[in-house]
Amino acid sequence: MTAGRAARFPSGTLVAGLLAGNGALWAVMFFGTLAHLQALAGGAAPFDIRPLGYSYEEARAFLEALGEQGRAYYLRPELILDTLYPPFYAVSRGLALWWLTMPGRLYDGSVPQRWGWTLVAMPVVMATCDGVENVCIAKMLWNWPDLSPGLVQASSLATRLKFIAGVSTEVLMAALAIPALLRWRRLPASPRPPRPAPRTAASRSPTASADAEPANSSEP
Predict the structure, then answer these.
(1) Least confident residue range of 46-60, 104-118, 185-199
(2) What DSSP character marks residue 205?
């Protein structure tokens, strides 16, 4: 990648595509696998969508309500999809935040690079907490009916931190995207280059140009 192309990375098209893909994966999980788990558990929310966490008693009650079929479904396909989601989230939100802080997005100057890296760190924290949560949930399912209180506590903490980092990331995205959009709407439209004049039949004919030269040379 050349220096010029690296300075323009990432492109808006790439960022939009990653955000759309990550949103589609979230929708498949939220309205598909997680909703199915909630139905199997009699309406109890899965661990992944409990922003306030869960106690040992709540975790045991949920896993019991799931039954053998539900616990197997939690392992596959839910946790398989949720293994893909955290890194996808980190890349899509990290590049989006980086794109929003590139020179000319918020103002004429550039955002200090240390601030850009600080913003990018937030979705990485969210993805890390989500990954820890997934490992803890997988261990709870593998070890069932043995359930460690320490494991439940670690999983609940990871879930709460995941939501804090995730909400913070989305708030940052909105706080940067709104002024960037307003600035883009205020910028004057770039002028279009003039269209080239249409070529005449004489200009397209090489013989016509050749005949014209002797005629011009014979004039006094």
Answers:
(1) 185-199
(2) -
Query: Which residue is it, tokens 């909400």?
Result: 167
Cβ neighbours of residue 126 closer than 8 Å, sequence gap 6 or more: 86, 89, 90, 93, 162, 165, 166, 169
Question: How many CB atoms sit inside 10 A of residue 147's CB?
Answer: 15
Better pLDDT: 178 or 131: 131
Contact between 72 and 153 (Cβ < 8 Å) = no
3-state SS, residue 160: helix
Rounded CA-CA distance 202/205 in Å is 5
Measure CA 33 to chain center: 20
User: What tens digit of pLDDT does each residue of 151-169 get?
Assistant: 999 999 999 999 999 999 9
Using DSSP's 3-state secondary structure scheme, residue 198 falls into coil
Integer CA distances (angstroms), 33 to 40, 45, 92, 100, 198, in order: 11, 12, 22, 32, 61
The residue type of 93 is R
Domain positions in the chain are: 3-189
The DSSP 8-state label assigned to residue 102 in this structure reads S
pLDDT digits (tens, 9 = 90+) for 64-86: 999 999 999 999 999 999 999 99
